[in-house]
Specification:
This protein is α/β, with parallel strands linked by helices. The chain contains eleven helices and nine strands. The strands form two sheets. It has a six-stranded mixed β-sheet, sandwiched between helices.
């Protein structure tokens, strides 16, 4: 099979699958290049309320396919492709969750860190490995990693390029939940159903604020006043029914 990004949309959840099984789902230059426009397409789809990023088969992503990055397109810098994909994922306007098993290393860990949440299977190995290749890790990626795990753990990972297990990843904040082998897909499906049922208005505003944006309070207050989501949420609570929120990021 050719290395590719596969995607499906079902029940309000888009699932993007990193598929390059011959190389533990390593990302080729073409795959890095394809991710931003795919995310733009999914962000514009009003039927998408959350996004899951995962890998084909028993591993998430073993990093960048180094052989393909030695010959990127004309005028392209290999690292810039990965950073552009990471930033596009971080900017996705709806909740994102990385479902991780096997190896989550290098560029794979970069992508997982760009998601809002990370659920991992027991036995997953995490690592960030530019020190093995003499690569300067991008400042944006370093800051994102440091915000997740703190300066000490970020330095441990970046300085050493050593792998850590899922238990340590959970302790340091690199992942949010660790599931027993065989339970990851079930838990991700349950949790994304929860996300898809919640107010997109609340989620979109919270994502911006949590990511540090400070200039849109008035915008979100105006969106809340015009959305009807608050009235619907209160009515649904009092009537003991599920709310039917109407606000969407696409309009």
């Amino acid at each position: 099979m050719e290395p590719q990004l596969e995607h499906t949309v079902a029940d309000g959840v888009a699932t993007v699958v990193i598929s390059n099984p011959a190389k533990r789902n390593a990302m080729t230059a073409g795959m890095w290049r394809a991710l931003p426009p795919l995310l733009d397409e999914l962000a514009a789809d009003p039927g998408v309320r959350a996004l899951v990023l995962t890998g084909a088969g028993p591993t998430f992503c073993a990093g960048a396919d180094i052989s393909s990055l030695r010959a990127p397109g004309p005028g392209e810098d290999p690292q810039s492709l990965a950073v552009a994909a990471e930033e596009a994922l971080a900017a996705f306007p709806k909740p994102t969750l990385a479902a991780v098993r096997g190896y989550c290393v290098g560029g794979g860990c970069q992508l997982a860190a760009a998601c809002d949440l990370r659920f991992a299977e027991e036995g997953t190995s995490f690592g960030i490995t530019p020190a093995k290749l003499g690569i300067v890790y991008a400042s944006s990626s370093t800051r994102r990693l440091t915000a997740l795990v703190g300066p000490s753990t970020a330095k441990y990972l970046l300085f050493s390029a050593e792998l850590i297990d899922s238990a340590r990843a959970l302790r340091t904040g690199l992942v949010d939940e660790v599931l027993a082998v065989g339970e990851l897909d079930k838990r991700v499906a349950e949790f994304t159903r929860v996300l898809a049922a919640r107010s997109q208005l609340t989620q979109a505003a919270a994502k911006e604020f949590a990511n540090g944006r400070t200039d849109r309070d008035a915008y979100w207050q105006e969106q809340a006043r015009g959305s009807g989501d608050t009235a619907e949420g209160v009515a649904a609570f009092l009537e003991r029914r599920d709310p039917r929120f109407g606000w969407t990021s696409s309009g």
